Amino acid sequence: MKEYVRILDVPEESLKRAYLTVSCSGCNLSKKIKADVFLSHPVVKVKCPCGCETKYILNRRHHHRKRVNIPVEITLLSSDTVRLVPKITGVVKDISVTGVGVNTSNYRSYNIGDIVELRFKLPTSENYIVKRGIVMCHDHKRKRIGIKYIDDGGVDRQISLFMRS
Fold first, then answer.
1. Does residue 81 sit in the same domain as residue 136?
2. Where are the beta strands (DSSP E) in the chain?
3. What does the pLDDT read at residue 12?
4. Are residues 49 and 24 in the same domain?
5. 77 with 151, same domain?
């Protein structure tokens, strides 16, 4: 029996429906699952007649995240602790209109609450995007930091258009 894991990026509105449709990772057979099952269980296992078992993990974020692989420069702007952190590089692994997830070997250089500047190019643009953000979380297993944008007050047009592409 083959086992698969899929992360479902489902908007909150979709969870108000009676059912969500999922498909087998092995044979693509579709199946309807009651939406309230995803609300009460963090991981939902679905067995298919073909013998495959797929674990579905619901991404409960407010905004859809797009998986990417974009080089980024990160500069520390403000911190509660006094330390010298040079400009470091990393890779944006997911992006949304409100923030990014960045993998970097220097993730320990940043603390939750630090204010940083991000500089990166979207694959659909020749211009650099410069965003200020706050470090919201660390993921030590994946050497990753989560950064929420704090500038603009609104949504960045370039990022918004990229999310729709």
1. yes
2. 3-9, 19-23, 30-34, 43-47, 53-59, 66-78, 88-95, 99-103, 115-121, 128-139, 144-149
3. 65
4. yes
5. yes
CATH of residue 102: 2.40.10.220
Domain around 41 = 3-59
CA distance 22 to 85: 44
Record the pTM. 0.65
Give 79's contacts (C-beta < 8 A, 6+ positions apart): 85, 111, 113, 114, 115
Q: Can you give the pLDDT at residue 90? A: 95
Return the residue matching tokens 């702007």: 77
The confidence score (pLDDT) of residue 16 equals: 75
Identify whether residues 50 and 76 lie together within a single domain: no
pLDDT of residue 155: 62
Residue 74 has a pLDDT of: 94
Dist CA 117 CA 13 (whole Å) = 32
Reference 51, options 121, 110, 4; nearest CA is 4
> Rounded to 5 degrees, what are φ and ψ at 160?
-60, -45
Which of the residues in the chain have pLDDT under 50? none
- 163: Cβ–Cβ under 8 A, 6 or more apart, which residues? 64, 66, 95, 96, 97
